Amino acid sequence: MGSVGAKEVPVLLSPDGKRIDGRRLDELRPLKIVAGALHQADGSAFVEWGANKVMAAVYGPREVHPRHLQQNNKAIVQCKYNMAAFSVDERKRPGLDRRSQEISKVISEAFESVIFVEEYPRTSIDIYIEVLQANAGTRCAGVVAASVALADAGIPMVDLLPSVAVGKIGGAIALDLKKEEDNFGEADMPMALVPQSGRLVLLQMEGHMTAEELGRSLDLGVQGCRSIYEVMKQALRDRYQVGGGAAQEVGA
Amino acid sequence: MRHGHRGGHRGRGPADVPVRSDGERTLVLPGEEIDVHGLQPGPGTYRVDGRTYASVLGLLSRRPPVVRVIPLSGRYIPKPKDVVVGTVTDVQTTFWLLDIGAPRWAPLHMTGTPWKIDVGETGNYLHVGDTVVVAIESLDPTGRIGVTMLGDDLGKVDGGTIITLSPAKVPRLIGRGGSMIQMLTQQTGCRIAVGQNGRIWVDGTPEGMVRVREALRLIEEEGQRSGLTERVAGYLGSSGGDQGDVGPGPMPGRPPFDPPNPIDDGDDSDDDAGPAPF
């Protein structure tokens, strides 16, 4: 947000195919995931993805409040996506806005389709996503954090949900846009993949692409999701691995 | 996705951690494909197109005739006859609602108590915030949990404190044939009620309760490693030696001290004995 004036548009793609931060078109930003970063939640995760910092906490399944929301045949999935006031350059006015409501809704629906909700009727599974620092692709980082947190909370689901955005910058299709590329690029398309089935359970788009570019974007995004999936699995293994090397040091 | 046969998630695994034939424990994650070796898919798994996948994070257990995933985390899933420690969250005319750490609150009907209560007088017996030790009596497929206070060692508890442990670690706290919990009671002189839901009620001297809390933290952090009993014994032995002049020391039985506890204050039941993350 801030000031996207009609000022000079940065060169997003150099002649040799490098992006402003030196990445190739199909390269992700560095991704680091910590599972179980919080103590009070049933499950949690912290994600650092490029300059994004996102925390996710999961509670439940638990009693639904207010009561009238409860469904007698399944659990409901309630996600709250929130950006901290200090997450962007210019202070963001705290609280719900149209953007965060929309993101909360699409993320809730994405997870509802992978969680075995019928296992826990009349309950609620609550996902809280807090964006501490934003640099484009925060909803994807939120989905990644939330799905690691859900696994950490022991919630039964079809699969983890890796997520990434693909966009069009300087006429080329690029994976995992950063802020400048998002602001000045031609298109941005976040997606979330169920690796087990190959289904997409979240897909949005802003900007313009040809049908052929859309097809290539989807392929690139799915490929990106598969690499992210490996990082997510490793984060959970690091936390839970038994008899592994790292966790042996604790204790008297 | 939902059509395939799939085991439910009711019932936690047995106390023993599954061990593969080569002695290694296999961690599986949601969505990971499981080689069933002709066994039936059980809890913690789902089937799509003839293939079996894990649905929860946990340890793979192949006990013929089923393959299951034993969860390593998550909320307490009630099992019939489990003894649990609960907190009263609501008082109705004929029953109380208890938070037992399960997905749903559990109603305790007034007929499930040792008291003769008239309709509408439930509030005279248990109040919101009271701690009770109850047993799971009934479970229905919609997830409703019935509990009872009728039975040995069940009832309301006064004083003491509640320490929470991950429900998956409770079998470790009890130990083989109750060895661990027995050692803990004897070495600290505390009265301890273990809920299968991971809520542990402890009452005794302030020093004893601190030692129980430390021992529980040890179990929480190292519960998956072998030789836990020895390490807890080592801890209790050494700290008992350090404070031998005040502590009760290793003596059999339960010393009959029950003073109201000063350190109990402000020690709310959510305390998991872990340091604050920030």
Number of strands of chain B: 16
The share of residues in extended strands of chain A comes to: 25-35%
CATH superfamily of chain A: GHMP Kinase, N-terminal domain
The secondary-structure element order of chain B is EEEEEEEEEEEEEEHHEEHH
Q: How does the major sheet of chain B shape up?
A: 6 strands, antiparallel
Largest contact between protein chains?
A-B, 45 and 46 residues
* Estimated structural class of chain B: alpha+beta
Written as H for each helix and E for each strand, in order along the chain, the element string of chain A is EEEEHEHEEHEEEH
CATH topology of the largest domain in chain B: Ribosomal Protein S8, Chain: A, domain 1
Give helix % range of chain B.
10-25%
**What count of helical segments of chain B does DSSP give?**
4
User: How much helicity do the residues of chain A have?
Assistant: 25-40%
Low-confidence stretches of chain B: 1-23, 240-278
Rounded mean pLDDT score of chain B: 80
What is the CATH architecture annotation of chain A? 2-Layer Sandwich
CATH architectural grouping of the largest domain in chain B: 2-Layer Sandwich
Structure explained in plain terms:
The complex is a heterodimer of chains A (about 250) and B (about 280). Chain A is an alpha+beta fold. Chain A has a single domain (about 30-240), classed as 2-Layer Sandwich (Ribosomal Protein S5, domain 2), CATH 3.30.230. Chain A has 4 helices and 10 strands. In chain A, strand 4 (about 75-85), helix 1 and strand 5 form a beta-alpha-beta unit. In chain A, helix 2 (about 140-150) runs parallel beside helix 4 (about 210-240). The longest helix of chain A has 30 residues, at about 210-240. The N and C termini of chain A lie far apart (about 50 Å). The model of chain A is unreliable at about 245-250 (pLDDT under 50). By secondary structure, chain B is α+β, with helices and mostly antiparallel strands. Chain B has 3 domains: about 1-75, Beta Barrel (OB fold (Dihydrolipoamide Acetyltransferase, E2P)), CATH 2.40.50.100; about 85-155, Nucleic acid-binding proteins (OB fold (Dihydrolipoamide Acetyltransferase, E2P), Beta Barrel); about 160-265, K Homology domain, type 1 (Ribosomal Protein S8, Chain: A, domain 1, 2-Layer Sandwich), CATH 3.30.1370.10. Chain B has helices at about 170-175, 180-190, 205-220, 230-240; strands spanning about 25-30, 35, 40, 45-50, 50-55, 60-65, 65-70, 85-90, 95-100, 105-110, 130-140, 145-150, 155, 160-165, 190-195, 200-205. In chain B, helix 3 packs antiparallel against helix 4 (about 230-240). The two termini of chain B are about 40 Å apart. The model of chain B is unreliable at about 1-25 and about 240-278 (pLDDT under 50). At the A-B interface, strand 3 and helix 4 of A face helix 3 and helix 4 of B.
